[in-house]
Amino acid sequence: MRAQFVLSEIGVGLRRNLTMTFAVIVSVALSLALFGGALLMREQVSTMKDYWYDKVNVSIFLCNKSDGATSAKCAKGAVTAQQKEQIEADLKKMDIVETVHHETADEAYKHYKEQYGDTAIASVVTPDQMQESFRVKLKDPEKYKVVATAFAGRDGVESVQDQRNILQNLFDLMNGMNIAALGVMGLMLVIALMLIVNTVRVSAFSRRRETGIMRLVGATNFYIQMPFIMEAAFAGLLGGAVACVMLLVGRYFLIDHGIALADKMQLVNFIGWDAVFAKLPLVIAIGLLMPALAAFVALRKYLKV
């Protein structure tokens, strides 16, 4: 097959269906940009989980003098020195525990004042109202229930809390956004495939005389179909390239500049440029292969000469 002939046929097809080709490029670009964005969002959630789950602790809150009237678990009164020693000793015996830090009521009051010192309620809170606690760092944060089962309900223990629950709502929100992006991507992908099929049908119909002549002189099906497939692949490749640009620009303006989330949310460990560049070959490959396969399937049905 002569490359010059194929290239000339691609040029003719693109010129004849310029508007529909442009629609295909836009649809492919949007769907692949959403696809790449969803992949990056999923990686961002995974990165944040790894970063924060490694830092959060399991907190074992101990009963104080005022808890007896408000909590049935502390009906026997405030935690005793012996109970604290036993809890700490049992924690250090557990294989899953990495470190144990005892936070006194005075330390808890100091931290509370640092966080909420400007609020009205902070002015009436006293150190004796604050709970002592053990801050437990686990080797595997997923094994929180082992600690909760062992210490919840013990004398002197008011509650056992996993700080991951504070972050779980954020992760659930981000996962929901990711699912929504995938849903919109699926819709755009269907629209792009329909446009590709219609573009190929129109192109094949407009060149039915040429393809009929080629069939009469002995051209194979593959030889006849190749220009149409290459047209769709070229449009998809352009759409994939636009999607890559959108991902790069989005990463640049959302995180580094413009909105600059990296400066406004310094506690968040954002994904780097390497994660974005790693997704670009996949976006390009899908942008190239998806339209080509759609065109091949469409031609088997609609290219009748």
TrEMBL record:
One Pfam family of this chain: FtsX_ECD
Record-given protein name: Cell division protein FtsX
Domain ABC3 transporter permease C-terminal: 184-304
Reported function: Part of the ABC transporter FtsEX involved in cellular division.
Major subcellular site: membrane
Membrane topology category: Multi-pass membrane protein
Domain FtsX extracellular: 56-160
Family affiliation: Belongs to the ABC-4 integral membrane protein family. FtsX subfamily.
Keywords: Cell cycle, Cell division, Cell membrane, Membrane, Transmembrane, Transmembrane helix
Compartments where located: Cell membrane
InterPro entries tied to this protein: ABC3_permease_C, FtsX, FtsX_actino, FtsX_ECD
Biological classification of the source: Bacteria, Bacillati, Actinomycetota, Actinomycetes, Kitasatosporales
Tagged with keyword Transmembrane: yes
TM region positions: 21-41, 179-200, 232-255, 275-299
